[in-house]
Write a structure and sequence with these properties.
With 167 residues, the protein is α+β, with helices and mostly antiparallel strands. It has five helices and seven strands. Helix 4 links the parallel strand 4 and strand 5. Helix 1 packs across helix 3. The chain is globular and about 40 Å long. The model has no long low-confidence stretch (mean pLDDT 97).
C-alpha cells in the first residue's frame, strides 16, 4: 500500500482524531496520549507542532490524502543530543501491510542522512510484539530489557530497548 510521510496540517484534525482514538493503539503508547482522543486534542497537537522550531521531527503517514498514522523523533539533550527516540502509530485498518516497516526505514534514512543523529532508539512495551517485529525487520537490535520499568492499565511490565546505529 502506497503512503508518504509529510508535515501535519490542520486539515488532518478529523482523520487524526478518528484513527488514533483506538484503545488498541492507546494500550501500546505512553499515557500522555489522551484517551478518548478528540478533535480538540488533534487540533492542539497539530498547532503545537506548527509552533516548533528547528528541523521537522514529526510526520503524518498519509494514504490517499488522509493522515492515518504518525511517526516522529524525540531528540535527546545535553550529552545525549546525538540520539533520538523513535515513536510511531498507525490506524488499525492499515495494520499488516508493511506500512510501518517502510515508514520506519524512511525516518531512519532521514535521521541519519539529513539530521545529526548517530543513534535512534525505541522503547517497546513487552505486550507489543508487533512493534518489536517492525523494528527487528528494519535492522534495529534489542539492546536491553528493562524489567518492570513501566505500568500501563495497572499492569507492570517490561520495556524492550531497541536501537540502530548510523553506519
Amino acid at each position: 500500500m502506497e503512503f508518504k510521510l509529510r508535515a501535519w496540517n490542520l486539515d488532518d484534525v478529523p482523520s487524526l482524531a478518528k484513527h488514533i482514538n483506538n484503545i488498541k493503539i492507546w494500550n501500546n503508547v505512553r499515557d500522555f496520549l489522551p484517551n478518548p482522543y478528540t478533535e480538540e486534542d488533534a487540533r492542539e497537537y497539530i498547532l503545537m507542532l506548527t509552533e516548533k522550531g528547528g528541523p521537522q521531527m514529526d510526520f503524518a503517514i498519509d494514504i490517499g490524502g488522509r493522515a492515518v498514522g504518525g511517526i516522529g523523533l524525540i531528540p535527546g539533550s545535553d550529552v545525549e543530543r546525538i540520539s533520538a527516540e523513535l515513536g510511531y502509530w498507525l490506524g488499525e485498518e492499515y495494520w499488516g501491510n508493511d506500512i510501518m516497516s517502510e515508514a520506519v526505514k524512511q525516518i531512519i534514512q532521514y535521521a541519519f542522512g539529513e539530521l545529526f543523529f548517530s543513534k535512534i532508539f525505541a522503547m517497546v512495551f513487552s505486550s507489543n510484539v508487533a512493534s518489536m517485529r517492525v523494528l527487528e525487520k528494519v535492522g534495529f537490535e534489542k539492546e536491553a530489557v528493562l524489567k518492570s520499568a513501566l505500568i500501563k492499565n495497572g499492569v507492570i511490565m517490561d520495556f524492550h530497548y531497541y536501537s540502530i546505529i548510523k553506519k
